[in-house]
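Hi all, posting the design record for the shared folder.

TITLE: backbone redesign
STEP: 1 of 1
STRUCTURE INPUT:
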């Protein structure tokens, strides 16, 4: 099972969540949000790597997660972690879902995002 599917499976174990597809132009994009307040805590997409500053047009699955600006500033240039694609770069972080970031670290960051948006 790929990282994206493992991540979705994990997300479904959280309380009060909804996974939806709000973009008609991008039906494969998945928004992870709280049902009660409708706030996003994750966005799963497929983008070209060059949009992240990687010199290739190959596509990669990513997740954007909300985080603390101080944490983002310290980890955003670690392997597989980037300033958020197409989101506020002070409050969001992009994580590659290509195996360059351990699943446990992704879950930890996702849990933090989930708690920040309750």
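Okay, here is what came back for every position:
SEQUENCE:
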């Amino acid at each position: 099972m790929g990282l994206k599917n493992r991540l979705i499976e994990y997300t479904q174990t959280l309380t009060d969540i909804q996974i939806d597809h709000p973009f008609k132009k991008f039906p494969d994009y998945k928004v992870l949000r709280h049902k009660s307040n409708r706030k996003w805590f994750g966005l799963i997409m497929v983008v070209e790597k060059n949009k992240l500053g990687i010199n290739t047009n190959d596509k990669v699955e990513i997740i954007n997660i909300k985080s603390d600006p101080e944490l983002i500033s310290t980890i955003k240039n670690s392997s597989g972690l980037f300033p958020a694609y197409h989101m506020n770069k002070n409050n969001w972080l992009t994580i590659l879902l290509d195996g360059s970031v351990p699943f446990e670290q992704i879950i930890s960051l996702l849990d933090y995002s989930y708690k920040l948006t309750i």
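COMMENT: The first helix runs from residue 3 to 11.
Let me know if anyone wants the other runs.
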